Structures are given as C-alpha cells and as structure tokens.
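Q: Sequence in, structure out?
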Amino acid sequence: MLGKAIKNEFRNREHTVLVVLLMLLAGAIFLRTLNGFKEQVGTVVLIFAVLINIVYWAVNIAAFVVAFITPVKDFRDRFFKDQGYLTHTLPLNIPTLIGARLIVDLAIMAQLILVTFFCNWFAYRDDDFLDDIITIMEMFKYNANKGEIIHYFILSVILLSVAYLSFIWLFCASYAIGHSLFNKYKRIITTVTAVILSTIAFVFSLKTWVSYMTGDLNIDTPDSLMWLFIIAAGVSLIIHVLIVGIIFKKKLNLE
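A: Exactly. Output:
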C-alpha cells in the first residue's frame, strides 16, 4: 500500500516540479550556448547576456519556491479541501499517508538540489570549476582541497533537504492546527502558529551560528556545525510530522 501511495503522490506533484526542472535545463543550455559567443563582445550582446542571466537566476529561485508551495498546497487540498473526501475514503492508515508524503517530499527536494547544481555547473562550467570554489573559500580564510569540497557539498545537500522538509512540514502542521483545532479565525491562527514556530527555528539557528563564530560553542569544525543543524532540522521535522499525525488521528478520523 505504501508503494501505491508514493506513486499517487508523485503523480499529483511531480509534473509541476518537472516543468520547473525542464526550464532550468533549457536555461542552462541556452546560457552555455551564449558563452560560446564570448569573443564577440558588444554592447547589445552584453546587455542581452545580463538579461538572460537575470531570468535564469529568477528561474532558480522560482524552482525552490515551487518546491515549497507545491507540497503545502497539495497538503491543504488533499486533507482540508475538495479532495479531502477522497483521501478520507482511501484504505490507508495515518503512518502510510504521512510516510508516502515524506518520501516524495524528500525525493523531489533532492532531485531539485542536484539538478539545480548540475544546471548551474553546466551553464558556467570551466576546467577549473572546483579550483574556483577553493579560491573563493580561501578568500574567507578557510583552506580546503577538492575532496573536502565534495564532502561539504554532500553535507550541504543533506542539510538543505532536511531543513527544507522541516520548513514545509512546519507550515503543514500550522495549517492542521489552525484548521482542525479551531472553528473561528482559522487563517489568523494558522499564520500566528507558523510565525511562532518559524521564529523559534530562526532564533535557534542564529544563536547557534553566533556561538560558533564567537567560539562559545564546543564545536571546532564546519562539518560538525553542519551535522548539528542537520540533527536539529531532523528533530524539528519529526515534531511537525507528529503534530500532523496526532491531529489527523483525533480530528479527521483517518484510520
């Protein structure tokens, strides 16, 4: 049943993300082609190149906005709007429903990060791509070799995926609280809940970062700091998922 639930989740959401990914790929190919005319530098070509780069990075930002809005909107539609009656009649228990959503959320986020990185690398690549990253890091007085760069990239993908998932489910939990536990002022309560939970996460992240920079935190390596944030985001994700699961069990009669 879990496999069917995952397939259904992909069918509902993957097409929207796929359109964004194809736009990214098309933009990367176009930029790479444009780079072939570097030697023919002129005012018109330069202006055109700048405009294309702006549009391309706007699509980059839009990709992550879509990756956030799509699951939150789908969560609302599937459990609280017109599609809700179909969801409530499915022969699936709560862990299966939530587990399928988590797996699909993670898969979509991971593929978005990897495809975005590949597209940006393809659009701006040269023979010294990793060397350029190392040079940038050395400007911030941090030395790293290519192996460490790959290590930190993998950690960054994990951190971004888990943190983004936690952020998505923060809004799902806020929506569930506002629209299941209260009969009036549902939107206001949802918004206030989301602001409170987001503020807690922001304050924790800011204090942790400041403590690390000032040396007050008993962590001396960047990867240890990244693992701390990964664990914190994971715990936050678990809390949000549990909130949704408890509300579903008590209020929506999903069994």
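The mean pLDDT is 77.
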